[in-house]
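hey so u asked for the seq, here:
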Amino acid sequence: TNPDGTWSLPNVIGGRYRVRAWRTPDLSLTEPAIFFLGGNESKSVNLPLSKYDGRSVSAAIAPRPAIIGQPANLVVRLEVQSVDQQGIVQGTPVVGATMQLSGSGDWRVRSENPTLTDSDGQASYAVTCNSSGTQPLGVTVDGQYYDLKLPDCSSGFVEPTTTDPSVRTTPTTRRTTSTTR
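ran it, structure tokens below
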């Protein structure tokens, strides 16, 4: 690699190529550059690397999207990212970290908050979204705030998606039921 970050590979035969780049332990290209090189062609390929050297937070919610006024389960995972010898981004769970949910969105947390991450680096919350649309929510860990990328909250009603006027649809009705044993 040259001081400016460029690298050259002369006398490459033509064909289809899939090119990746990385630097252990902190830089990686997660989507390879795929291209065809003609037999007499010369080509420059830009391989922008991203930094993976610190904490990362990801979240999953069920149901997805959260339905207004209905309970939802939110799991937030905290890990430290690094790049291995093969250029793969790896995450190591952070165990026992204190996480606190907060944000400007209309959410109600129905479980312990703050809470500690488990052996998988995960903290679980019972939440309820109270308004439709985008409802910002995040988590604070050791004074650092991380925005959770959650889908917009939904009313639970799904509009028919057909554009064919000959197809007839009926409205969707949601009912809450319970079973007693």
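DSSP finds no helices and 14 strands in the chain. The longest strand covers residues 71-83.
lmk if thats what u needed
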